[in-house]
Amino acid sequence: GIQVEQSPPDLILQEGANSTLRCNFSDSVNNLQWFHQNPWGQLINLFYIPSGTKQNGRLSATTVATERYSLLYISSSQTTDSGVYFCAVLLLGYDYKLSFGAGTTVTVRA
Amino acid sequence: NAGVTQTPKFRVLKTGQSMTLLCAQDMNHEYMYWYRQDPGMGLRLIHYSVGEGTTAKGEVPDGYNVSRLKKQNFLLGLESAAPSQTSVYFCASTSTSVVPGELFFGEGSRLTVL
């Protein structure tokens, strides 16, 4: 299967700081998603981004499919950004099973 | 629009008891999945279904059974619960047509086996 590596594993930020999370994957993919798991355990879709760049408020993501990585940018971080960020990828032909990274745990301190 | 709904949200079982988790989606998605998440770990696929009447094993299927009798429902069963099955269980679904592979999750079901 596809290997997905996320870095860094942990990130501590002061409120207002910017940060970049990275997701590397081992094969060409048809789909890449970023999720945020909040401290209450809910998994929230952030971006569906197999390629290109998208922005949603203070969050943006870029996937460079040819180089097999994706970046998630958090700008002007807030305490509500705390939680775990997961990257998941899909290669069509693998029965629509997404492969997940281990996640980046982000803690934003006031 | 409810999306993906899981019931129950919380359950405590004794070792050896059985139970069923229900996942329902109202998005007409073909694919449905059951994942488990243990502390400090990512999501591991238990079983999945590519359509009504079909199921397949994921990474960690042992001790679980599933059924997909209706397209909108995916059931996860534990016949004889063990403490190692204490976990948070997530159901998810996706479509193969509209936005291929965009995954939507339920809110999770926290299961404790004593």
Which characteristics define this entry?
heterodimer, A: 110 residues, mainly beta, 6-stranded mixed sheet, 5-stranded antiparallel sheet, 0% helix, B: 114 residues, 7-stranded mixed sheet, 4-stranded antiparallel sheet, globular
Walkthrough of the structure:
- The complex is a heterodimer of chains A (110) and B (114).
- Chain A is mostly beta strands and 110 residues long.
- Helices cover 0% and strands 56% of the residues of chain A.
- In chain A, the strands form two sheets. In chain A, strands 2, 4, 5, 9, 10 and 11 form a six-stranded mixed sheet that branches. A five-stranded antiparallel sheet of chain A has the order 1-3-8-7-6, with no helix packed on it.
- In chain A, strand 9 and strand 10 (99-100) form a beta hairpin.
- Chain B starts with a strand and ends with a strand.
- The relative contact order of chain B is 0.32.
Briefly characterize the structure.
The complex is a heterodimer of chains A (110) and B (114). Chain A is an all-beta fold. Chain A is 0% helix and 56% strand.
Strand fraction of chain A equals over 45%
Strand element count of chain A: 11
Tell me the Rg of chain A in angstroms. Answer: 13 Å
Query: What class do helices, strands and sheet pairing of chain B give?
Result: mainly beta
- The total of helices of chain A stands at 0
Biggest sheet features of chain A: 6 strands, mixed
Largest sheet of chain B: 7 strands, mixed
Task: Supply the helix-strand structural class of chain A.
Answer: mainly beta
The outline of chain B comes out as: globular
Instruction: Sketch the topology of chain A as an H/E string, one letter per element.
Output: EEEEEEEEEEE
